[in-house]
Amino acid sequence: MGSLPRSRFNESVLVERERETAEFDRLIRDALEGHGRLVFLGGEAGVGKSSLVRDVIETARGRSTVRCGYADDVTTAAALGALLEAAPELARVTDDIAARGKLSLFHAARELLAREPTLLVLEDVHWADEATLDVVRYLGRRLEGMPLLVVATYRHEDVPPRHRLAVVMGDLAAAAGVVRMDLTPLSTAGVARLVEAAELTIDPTDLHGRTGGNPFFVTEVLAAGAATVPTTVRDAVLARSSRLTPAAQHVLAGAAVLGTRVDPRTLALVVGEPESALDECIAHGVLVVENDECAFRHELARLAVLETLSGSERSAVHRAALHELLAGGSTDARAIAYHAAGCAEWEVLLRHARIAARRAADLGAHHESAAQYRMALRVPHLALRERAELADALAYECYLTDQLPEALAAMRQAADAYEVADDAAALGAAQRRLSRLTWFLGQNVDSERYAEKAIAALEPLGDGHELGMAYSNMSQLMMLAGNTAATTDWGRRALAVAARIGDREIEIHALNNVGTATCEQAGDAEGLRMIQQSLALALEADAHEHAARAFTNLGSVATRRWRLAEAEERLDAGIAYCDDRDLDSWSRYMSGWRAIVFAERGDYDEALALSARILGHADLAPISRIQAALVLARVSARRQLDHDAPLAEATELAAETGESQRMLPATIARAEVAWLTGDTGAVGELVTSVLPMAATRGNPWQLGELLWWAELGGVHVEPPAQVAPVFELMLAGVWDEAAEAWRELGCPLWVALAKGCDPDLRRARESLIIVSSLGAPGVAAAIARTRFERNLAVARGPRTATRRNAALLTPREVEVLALVARGLTNAEIGRRLFLSTKTVGHHISSILRKLGEPSRGRAVAAAREQGIGLET
């Protein structure tokens, strides 16, 4: 922040930040009224974020409790470091978080911060640990009703697209109450104000040009008082510090090694200089005192000083700091490991890095845990077993943080070491995890190979948790490949082990596999019961990922069988469960299925928006990208929008997995797009290429849809296996019954396709009315072309009255709006139309958006003005 100096730069006021301070005044008022706000305050290093925050603190002080926490990059980020510094009361929750679960921390943080008006400042969150960012995301989704303003500062240049802070900001981009605020450098006029206040003769234009208007650089130049402008921030900082005595420079060097913020007593003990030397640093403004801690004015200043130190100088400070920590009985394993690494005390490093890693993992800071294991693995001359266990632990932490290539490499290193050590139990467990990792990376052949190796290693050892999970892992692979018989066989073996040794996790996992595979093929009640039992057991055990997987499979099974109301209910429940626990990978995957439901319902705006939002996540897993990209491609093609890129991406990713559950939907989508774009010759080739897979590994609905697109492409294929009843009607040309069956399923596009192929011209016109209401001109053109090719009369477009539906309300939305016009509540509408209340709410939100009206009554009036009939 640009500052007007007072008393040789010890006091300052803001320059060129009037707009930002006014905005913060408004946000503080909002928070005081119970409308919580979260501000991501960004800008380049030295642009003045901290100065602005200090002004915000002074504005809020007296009206709210002020809590401040800081992150730094001196060493691995402290797990929940910034948060616990701001809210030390939460330490009581973190002490037993391994038993209570991360959700207990989220709830405790929200409860604490909601008790009274609060300003929570988290500085430099680009360096914050994963657990702190999880809390920020949790709060950002639940701001309404809280008297809370959260200000999180970060540097643009330190947040690339895949950075975990970028992911969090992306997740919260559409959240109410979340604000992005970016600070820009000073103008030439702003620099001139600072030069004038400093009473120096430096040319402001030249100073602005050399510093780019960076406020920290400008104030460092002015503080140095040189006649010429240094060329870098480093030169400016060193010019200022060069005026210090040798003792004060030694203090400054110690502070640079110890960190951005350090306790004065610790600093004095480490450097061994008199108190006057520290006072000198503070008097010259090189160090400042905040909250009883010494700190550099900016991290750029610390780094400038640190770069001047030799390796031996740094090592000496580390050794002195390590001695003080150990002599004082410190329990800060992270700091001890850091200083031990700095002075090559390998045994101390190894012991405390492992403690710090386990602590970070317990708190959910898995990136930080992985960093500690990496540091431990750099210790020379590790024993074989020790190296294997460290690599194993690193692989797991990398798996949890989506660093899959590194996880795979570390797990292979561990497996090789276990094999050399002739430890069959550890080797088999490692091979099962290798199977899972290679599956996530789309390497399915390797995944099955490792699964077989795991079973071969573990079976001679008899019953145990790892053997049961190895059986269930193979069952899962077979389920994903569409092999129901093998899924059931391996799943039953896993369940038998679970029963013999009383292992609940094996039971939960295997029930899900067998139940899902059974539902996929036959859809029987027994399969559904098994998945529901898996979910119930997972919820009872608070096994988050197992519960998420059960929710996912319940929702996906219902979606693939076109039971859309059931799918909505299950997916919405699962997404809510995962959002509440920040299980984002599962939430995103289920959201892909939710986008499919929107598309089948005819809610194309919602389908496009949701699929685009999913694809906007930089760290999105391939299986989630496939889902969202296919929805985006199919709906875009129906609306004659660009669709080539998402379709190509989904096709390529699906092929890499080799799984029928990815490849069949991708081929079906390509077949539909080929029909929509007039490339009917390609449809037959597409169907032929996957027909054997669809007959043996697909479900009756997938096979039926595949054969239907072949029919539209002019290729008749006899069903090689059972198809769903509604597709039997479509393929047999029983158009009236097919259209009615699709109407009951709530699928307007498929009603239109059935009517569009009916020789009756009246029904063909009804088809075009439906397609027009969906806003799908690509479908209208394709239906007209198909009728022409079949020598059927081609219907004209909708009548004028229908064209007045400029808002493109879907038939379902018109139906809902008609009931709104009769004064029914959402719950009453849901009971009338057999929809969940939440789904009715989605429809009404879409209606209001399309009509551009703020209320239900205004929407009814607008629809009538447009001539949209609302009679029921």
Relevant terms:
single chain; mainly alpha; 8 strands; globular; disordered N terminus
- Structural class, by secondary structure, is mainly alpha
Give me the oligomer status: single chain
Mean pLDDT across every amino acid position: 89
Number of helices: 47
| Helix content class | 55-70%
- Which term fits the overall shape? globular
Strand order of the largest sheet: 2-3-4-1-5
Distance separating the two termini: 63 Å
Low-confidence stretches: 1-12, 799-804
How many distinct beta strands?
8
Strand content: under 5%
What is the radius of gyration computed over CA atoms, rounded to a whole number of angstroms?
32 Å
Largest sheet: 5 strands, parallel
Description:
The protein has 872 residues and is mostly helical. The protein contains 47 helices and 8 strands. Strands 2-3-4-1-5 form a 5-stranded parallel sheet. Residues 1-12 and 799-804 have low confidence and may be disordered.
In short:
The chain is mostly helical and 872 residues long. Strand 7 (287-290) and strand 8 (293-296) form a beta hairpin.
